[in-house]
Amino acid sequence: MRYSPLTARLTLQCWAARDSALRPALDSVLYAVGLYRFGVTGQYLDEHIQRSLEWAQQEEGVEVIALDDDEASRWDGQLAPVNETILSDAEQQGLPAYAFAERMQELIEEYRTEAE
C-alpha cells in the first residue's frame, strides 16, 4: 500500500467559522484526516525515536536508563509543577490545554493496555 502525504491547513478565520453551515462537513473531514494522520505520525515517531536511541547508544555512547514504576512516579511528581505551568499558560491563551492533556492521558492508557 502506498501513502501520499496530506496536509490539512486551516486559517484562523476558517477555524473560527467552523460554527457556520460548513461545520458538519469540516468536522467530518478533520476527523477522518486526523485519525489517519495520528496513526501514521505516531508510528513514524515511535520508529524514529527507537532508531535515534539506537544510534545514540552505538555512536555516541548514550546510556538509556529505564525507570521502575516507583521512580517514574517520583519523576512525575517532580515534573508536575512544570507541566501545570505549561498547561495554565496555554489555557490563559484560550487553548483547551487541560482537556487536551486529559484526553492524551486517556489515549496513552488505552493504547498502553492494548499493547500489553
How are the SSEs placed, and which strands pair?
Blueprint: H1 12-16, H2 23-60, H3 69-92, H4 97-115
Number of domains: 2
Number of strands: 0
Structural class: mainly alpha
Strand-and-helix sequence, N→C? HHHH
Taking Cα atoms only, what radius of gyration do you get, to the nearest Å?
A: 19 Å
Sheet-strand content, in percent, reads under 5%
How would you portray this structure in words?
This protein starts with 11 loop residues before the first helix and ends with a helix. The protein has 116 residues and is mostly helical. It folds into 2 domains: 1-64, no CATH class; 65-116, no CATH class. Helix content is 74%, strand content 0%. The longest helix has 38 residues, at 23-60. The radius of gyration is 19 Å and the shape is extended.
Summarize this entry quickly.
The protein has 116 residues and is mainly α. The chain has helices spanning 12-16, 23-60, 69-92, 97-115.
Core attributes:
disordered N terminus; 0% strand; extended; TRAP_DctP_sf; single chain
